[in-house]
Amino acid sequence: MQNKNILFAATLCVLSFCSPRGNCDFQKGPLKSTKVLGFSWENCGSAKDPAVMKALSLSPDPISIPGDLKANAAGSTSVAFTSPLSVNVTLEKEVAGFWVKVPCVDELGSCHYSDACQILDTLTPPGQDCPEPLHTYGIPCRCPFKAGDYSLPDSDFYLPNVDLPYWLTNGNYKVVGVLGSAGQELGCLKLTFSLHSA
């Protein structure tokens, strides 16, 4: 998932609270159903970044987990993405009016991933078709990613029931994901949302 694929996939992973290894087996807590409210996004890189998200829409609002999700997205990259492709994620939670950085716990939180290409190979091993709807629309799901424009029309997804980590509680969150390669920033995406569990 190049700029669009990697960042969009990261968005879906954040919403479904799956780690980059595709492992959703977090420590169980008393909260069973979750709603994601007020989802928004913006590019946060410099004007020189080659990877740019042009559109990203998720509905309904609130998004229910478990539940159905409709998404569309578009993005572009002016350079090819090859391994190693680093991803640096910063997760912050609003506490008493201040934004507090959430540490990296079990590969979720403010974590650095040295090669997203290896993570993508774990999610969809080489030789296997990309999952729907990526396959239908010719969107790659593993490295390398060619330079170009990518678009995902309105598509339906199902977010399964997962147990939240015990430390991921109700509140307002910000996530910043930065793609990089060979010490250069390729793109940056900032997501904001609120969690409400019951």
TrEMBL record:
<dbReference type="InterPro" id="IPR003172">
    <property type="entry name" value="ML_dom"/>
</dbReference>
<protein>
    <submittedName>
        <fullName>Ganglioside GM2 activator-like</fullName>
    </submittedName>
</protein>
<dbReference type="InterPro" id="IPR036846">
    <property type="entry name" value="GM2-AP_sf"/>
</dbReference>
<keyword id="KW-0732">Signal</keyword>
<dbReference type="Pfam" id="PF02221">
    <property type="entry name" value="E1_DerP2_DerF2"/>
</dbReference>
<feature type="signal peptide">
    <location>
        <begin position="1"/>
        <end position="24"/>
    </location>
</feature>
<feature type="domain" description="MD-2-related lipid-recognition">
    <location>
        <begin position="41"/>
        <end position="193"/>
    </location>
</feature>
<dbReference type="InterPro" id="IPR028996">
    <property type="entry name" value="GM2-AP"/>
</dbReference>
